[in-house]
Design a protein that fits this description.
Two copies of one chain form a homodimer. With 232 residues, chain A is an alpha/beta fold. Chain A has helices spanning 15-26, 44-55, 88-92, 103-118, 140-153, 155-159, 175-184, 210-222; strands at residues 6-10, 30-37, 60-65, 122-124, 165-167. Chain A has a single domain, classed as HUPs (Rossmann fold), CATH 3.40.50.620. In chain A, 53% of the residues are buried.
Chain lengths: 232, 232
């Protein structure tokens, strides 16, 4: 039997990256999970990433700290209030305040470094162009440009020992599609964390921020129950 | 008088990035220096970066920690011995052990995030394709690919409020050219740190590692004295 190919999977602890990891596993990859601790205001996401990695039988789970909070500029790392209770049309209006400058570029760069170190040609990331239509680094042309860069940027890419591929299997799926796909693959969504404004005591989701609303609507559209606890 | 344009300058504390910063300053940019603390084995570089930023009158100097040591894979972050006393032909033979996977991609990504936050279209980096011919991420085609990515990856790039440019003014210069250029611009090279294997007590340079040898040869070829102290 040939050795199982390795995949570096960016795992945030959220629903999208958990589904992405399950898809990679279903295609026969050994999962090498990578979480980026970018100075989030809450740590529940990283704890969720660890639970998800374990539940999917990942070969390893590394967390690399990148102190993006030093850069400022986003509600996710700064003290800017997270929007609550916005309508779908408000969310659709342009790039949201929760946008973190260059976040996916930083995360994919670290994933690329790890991939080269462990000899993985395949990097999986749960970016999505539908629900996050305002994020420039969630578009197919961005992913293509990064893949091209990856093969120019590295010893393995230039010497041809690894031909890096960036997999973004969720990129054109709706949230409901993602949840159906993950449910079919046995993803335990009770382990995931999505909320931007969780209860500081236990990490329970608020149900009102953009991320919670998209999640709840996705489960409703998929005809499934969201197994996590909401405090509001 | 129009406001001075801002430049994000990646400052390692070494000779190349100090020269790059001086070139940016000579072209009228306000310097916003950025150092990446990527888990180096020694801290003398970062201290040197602070001194260089101050001596060049930088508007600010930020240090962002990116724990690349978590990834492993290089003599600069791992416990692999740093080569000593290699000849120029040995150094020219392929990609050196001191190569850090995806380092420039990670550093430029963080610089891009900072640039977007502070409203700087111009990112300056001291990569050099001559002395580091083995590093894939020191080639012009890599810089061009990153610039393209930068304008796809960011809100400011996509909305057209900033047209990002990556400046690599040293890319085709020899070490002697770089030193002559910096000396003409008044760079105080006594503030810089180059050595891969410094004295752990005071950071004095070894004079024998690849980096020291390239530096010493560069000063010799430029007909100038290297003002730093070598312990060997």
């Amino acid at each position: 039997m040939p050795p199982q190919p390795k995949a570096v999977v960016l795992l945030s602890g959220g629903l999208d990256s958990a589904t992405t990891a399950a898809i990679a596993r279903s295609q026969g990859y050994a999962l090498h999970a990578l979480s980026i601790d970018y100075g989030q205001r809450h740590r529940f996401e990283l704890a969720a990433a660890g639970r998800v990695a374990q539940s999917l039988g990942a070969a390893e789970h590394r967390t690399v700290r990148v102190d993006l909070a030093e850069m400022g500029g986003s509600a996710l790392t700064d003290a800017i209030p997270v929007p609550q209770g916005r309508s779908a049309s408000e969310m659709a209006g342009g790039i949201p305040v929760t946008y973190v400058p260059a976040r996916n570029t930083v995360m994919l760069s670290v994933a690329l470094g790890m991939a080269e170190v462990i000899g993985a040609a395949d990097i999986w990331v749960g970016v999505n162009a539908v629900d996050y239509s305002g994020y420039p680094d969630c578009r197919p042309e961005y992913i293509t440009a990064f893949e091209r860069l990856a093969n120019l940027a590295t010893k393995a890419g230039v010497e041809g020992t690894l031909k890096f591929r960036i997999h973004a299997p969720l990129i054109d799926l709706t949230k409901a599609d993602i949840i159906r796909r993950g449910a079919a693959l046995g993803v335990d969504y009770s382990l995931t964390h999505t909320c931007y404004s969780p209860n500081p005591e236990d990490g329970a989701a608020c149900g009102a921020c953009d991320a919670c609303q998209l999640r709840l609507q996705g489960f409703a559209d998929a005809g499934l129950a969201d197994p996590i606890h909401y405090f509001a």
